[in-house]
From TrEMBL:
Phylogenetic placement of the source organism: Bacteria, Pseudomonadati, Bacteroidota, Flavobacteriia, Flavobacteriales
NCBIfam families hit by this protein: MenG_MenH_UbiE, PRK00216.1-5
Catalyzed reactions: a 2-demethylmenaquinol + S-adenosyl-L-methionine = a menaquinol + S-adenosyl-L-homocysteine + H(+)
Function description: Methyltransferase required for the conversion of demethylmenaquinol (DMKH2) to menaquinol (MKH2).
BP GO terms, sorted: menaquinone biosynthetic process; methylation
Annotated protein name in UniProt: Demethylmenaquinone methyltransferase
Any one GO molecular function term: demethylmenaquinone methyltransferase activity
Family membership: Belongs to the class I-like SAM-binding methyltransferase superfamily. MenG/UbiE family.
Amino acid sequence: MSKNITPYKNSDLGKKEQVAKMFDTISGNYDNLNRVISFGIDIKWRKKVLEIVAKSNPETILDIATGTGDLAILMAQTNAKQIIGLDISSGMLEVGVKKIADKKLSNTIEMVLGDSENMPFEDDYFDAITVAFGVRNFETLEKGLKEILRVLKPNGVFVILETSVPGKFPYKQGYNFYSKNILPIIGKLFSKDDVAYGYLSESAAAFPYGEALNNILRKIGFIDVIALPQTFGVATIYSASKN
């Protein structure tokens, strides 16, 4: 990332602590706000992630930056024996635990409070690892990706869903206007945290995407790296594996 974007400009806290604080604050409205911001298209993107993961018939799945557990819950459709949702925000996890219980998936999905850059899991443990809209919140991107590589089994699948910036007119111009002007206003209307959705917009714009992220993944040691732009390029799904 060209610069380290943080939620709170004048805070003495590190990025991890700031991100945890921000998501704790917005956790109650996060799901509804996401649907509004993406016009519900994020559901379609997550289903495509599910399709990629399901092809490998995984028994163990890790969903990093799981938030309120949307993707982890979707992963239950793979019939995996063990699904773990990891997140740094206890507030988001509390919402997720309730959702999982309501869907009677508590025996399959475990929500774990933890740091994606220092995970409490053994080497070569997970058949599949997913991250939806979370890698840009890593304090140190390469450190987080190295941890993911460490806990992924050889031949396992790693899938990222992340925002990106459209490259073609008029989608690029429309996206820039929406993310800089409309997104923060919607965030302020729905959220108790005035800066949260300004940060999410700013961090998305600064994050490497497309071939730039592909090259970082290859540098870390991932193989079979593919980028699949979604909806005119406003999001991208990345798929990778491990030797």
